[in-house]
Design a protein that fits this description.
Mean pLDDT of chain B: 95
Structural class of chain A: mainly beta
Low-confidence stretches of chain A: none
Largest interface: A-B, 29 and 24 residues
Order of helices and strands of chain A: EEEEEEEEEEE
Number of helices of chain A: 0
Helix content of chain A: under 10%
Oligomer: heterodimer
Radius of gyration of chain B: 13 Å
Order of helices and strands of chain B: EEEEEEEEEEE
Number of strands of chain A: 11
Strand content of chain B: over 45%
Distance between the termini of chain A: 36 Å
Low-confidence stretches of chain B: none
Largest sheet of chain B: 6 strands, mixed
Radius of gyration of chain A: 14 Å
Helix content of chain B: under 10%
Number of helices of chain B: 0
Shape of chain B: globular
Distance between the termini of chain B: 38 Å
Mean pLDDT of chain A: 93
Chain lengths: ~110, ~110
């Protein structure tokens, strides 16, 4: 299993550009989430999904869109990049049965917006 | 308004000794708590968790204690090893939803040989 994969690893954008951060998991997890981490801060939830076709907003959703057309993929779209979106982005997938908690994070995408 | 607080940005301990990392929370709805370890340039790795129906959970060298009345939890690492040097994040959620976590700012643990 590859676990959770994220592409690209690094990206530099100009203000106003759009792009999609890719996230894929091969563990058949129903739950997936996107977080951002800024210097000196913990991770903050952007959007999450509890299954294919179902998404919802987290703590900091403005400027981002998501979709979940398959169980495996959960892309994060930046509509019009702003310097405030410079951050490290982590995708996570998880599975929880009540008795067993399993969650994995991807390696992250470091985004710089100029 | 920070709902999960890790008030110590850093902690330094000697190899073989105990490391104690602390975490406080303010949201009474939180009923499930997790600890993550993060190395530079990697994603967080799940370490250990505890449900609010328990006050202690142990996994090898790692033990998490929960004091609900004080809204406080702590992670004990015994004995500490140099490979434990990393940033440790405390996270909390409600309803067992491990996909919707609220994180603290993290504590950098350095274990000196």
């Amino acid at each position: 299993n590859a676990g959770v994969t994220q592409t690209p690893k690094f990206q530099v954008l100009k203000t106003g550009q759009s792009m999609t951060l890719q996230c894929a998991q091969d563990m058949n997890h129903e739950y997936m989430s996107w977080y951002r981490q800024d210097p000196g801060m913990g991770l903050r939830l952007i959007h999450y999904s509890v299954g294919a076709g179902i998404t919802d907003q987290g703590e900091v959703p403005n400027g981002y869109n998501v979709s979940r057309s398959t169980t495996e993929d959960f892309p994060l779209r930046l509509l019009s990049a702003a310097p405030s979106q410079t951050s490290v982005y982590f995708c996570a997938s998880s599975y929880w049965t009540g008795g067993k908690n399993e969650q994995f994070f991807g390696p992250g995408t470091r985004l710089t917006v100029l | 308004d920070q709902q999960v607080k890790q008030n110590s940005p850093s902690l330094s301990v000697q190899e073989g000794r105990i490391s104690i990392l602390n975490c406080d929370y303010t949201n009474s709805m939180f009923d499930y708590f997790l600890w993550y370890k993060k190395y530079p340039a990697e994603g967080p790795t799940f370490l250990i968790s505890i449900s609010s129906i328990k006050d202690k959970n142990e996994d090898g060298r790692f033990t998490v204690f929960l004091n609900k009345s004080a809204k406080h939890l702590s992670l004990h690492i015994v004995p500490s090893q140099p490979g434990d040097s990393a940033v440790y994040f405390c996270a909390a959620t409600s309803g067992g939803s491990n996909y919707k976590l609220t994180f603290g700012k993290g504590t950098l643990l350095t274990v000196n040989p």
